[in-house]
Amino acid sequence: MIRKPHMGFSVVTLLATLIISGHAEPPPPSTTDKTDDTAELTRQRDHLQLENSLRDEKLHEELASSQEELARLKMQNDLQKAKADQVLAKRKIEIDAAKVEMEVLSSNAALENARKQAETQAQLIALRAQRDRAEIEAELATAELTKRQSAFKATELEWNAKTSELRAKLAQREKEEEADSYADEKPVYLKNPVTDDGELVLTDRRIPLNGLISPATADFVCSRIDYFNNKNKDWPIFIVIDDSPGGSVMAGNKILESMHSSTAPVYVVVKTFAASMAATIATLAPRSYAYPNAVILHHQISNGMMGNLTEQREGLKNLEQWWKRMATPIAAKMGISTDDFVKQMYTHAASGDWQEFGDEAVKLKWIDMVVGRCRETAWRKNPDSATASTGQQVATADHSATSSEKVDAKGHPYMVLPHLNPIDCYYLFNPDGYYRTDN
User: Fold this and answer.
1) Is the pTM of this model over 0.70?
2) Using CA atoms, how far apart are residues 213 and 183, in angstroms rounded to an integer?
């Protein structure tokens, strides 16, 4: 802005002029008063003009000062406004920048949101497509499964029909085989079981007696004697000994008592070997039969006693009592004394184990009759059949004793004899020591 010239210089000049005018020499005397008045008036006029001029100058000076102050204030105001405008412009720029940044962020957020929405939409579309595809595949799989099930059902029905046909054929074949496994002939019951040509006819009233004679064996034999008596008291009952080394004296005596108390006759048949208690049962039976090559063996009762002398004497006394009760009837049937019976045992064998074949045993009256043939009419069921009758079993040894077979330190097999009651003893042929006690 252009600054105006300062008015103070004019005011000073004017004041100096007035002072000089006041001290100036008076004008020459006027000839008239009018001239004086005019001069006075002129002087007053000039004075007033000067005052007015002075006032005007003052006013101009004040006005100039005011204008200058106003200009200064305006300049300050303009400066402040300019500064404010500058700050405002800066703030506006910042605001605009912030707005731009916000718009950018908003735009980016919108873009990100749009991108996510697009991705979500794409995923939803993909999932819907997968769902639709899965539903279609499931429908196809269901249809395929239904088709396969139908085919399988048809195949199953076909196989069931074939299986039923095969089962029917197998059942028919089994029935035919079962029918074929039975003999058409029924058991032949004869009060005198020996035919005119010397054949012994055995029926289903037969009781096998084999292996070690134990209390279980006695129960087995005696219960069947009772059963066959209750069924028929006329037809004979057969105790068939294939192979027995003897066993418990008390168990054997129980069998003898059951035989002798039976209403139906009880006959004993020895096919292979009967020793000790088994031989006693055969010899003391109401009637006994044997093959000519069957072996019958008699010997004294023996027992491995333990204990002090008194206990051993009591045990010996008990053994002698049992021996008397078993040997006396045998010796009486032979027509000799018990002592002679014992002497002949050791005459025929140093061990005292007197054995004879069936045809010689008849001569000694150990056996009543030798037969050349036994006809088993009870074997109506094929022995190889799994359902063969248990009444036709051939072993009656105590299973608990049989299952206890062991091997000693020398590699020799042996079987532990079942424990007997204190007054019982074994009447057993045991030359190889196979049967042993557990003490």
Assistant:
1) no
2) 32
For 39-50, write each residue's pLDDT tens digit: 888 888 878 878
- What percent of the chain has a predicted confidence (pLDDT) above 90? 36
* Nearest Cα to Cα of residue 298 among 273, 261, 266, 332: 273
Q: Which of 214, 244, 258, 299 does the annotation list as catalytic?
A: 299
Query: How far is Cα of residue 70 from the mean position of the Cα atoms in its chain?
Result: 109
CA atoms of 8 and 20, how far apart (whole Å): 19
Contact at 8 Å (CB) between 179 and 188? no
Which residue reads 């912030």 in tokens? 98
CA distance 50 to 39: 15
77 neighbors 30 (Cβ within 8 angstroms): no
Q: Which of 395, 378, 393, 397 is nearest to 435 (CA)?
A: 397
| Region for 327 from its dihedrals, namely left if φ exceeds 0, alpha if ψ lies in -120 to 50, beta otherwise | alpha
Q: Which of 214, 258, 276, 288 is catalytic?
A: 276
Q: Are 408 and 402 in contact (CB under 8 A)?
A: no
Tokens of 360: 């010689």
Is position 299 annotated as part of the catalytic site? yes
60 is catalytic: no
pLDDT averaged over every residue in the chain: 82
Alpha-carbon gap, residue 369 to 359, rounded angstroms: 8
Burial (0-12, 13-18, 19+ Cβ within 10 Å), 279: buried
Distance (Å) of CA 362 to CA 144, 167, 174: 87, 57, 47
What length is written for the chain? Answer: 439
Summarised one tens digit per residue, pLDDT across range 357-369 is 999 999 999 999 9
The neighbouring-strand residues paired with 202 are: 376
Q: What is the pLDDT of residues 208-267, one digit of tens each?
A: 999 999 999 999 999 999 999 999 999 999 999 999 999 999 999 999 999 999 999 999
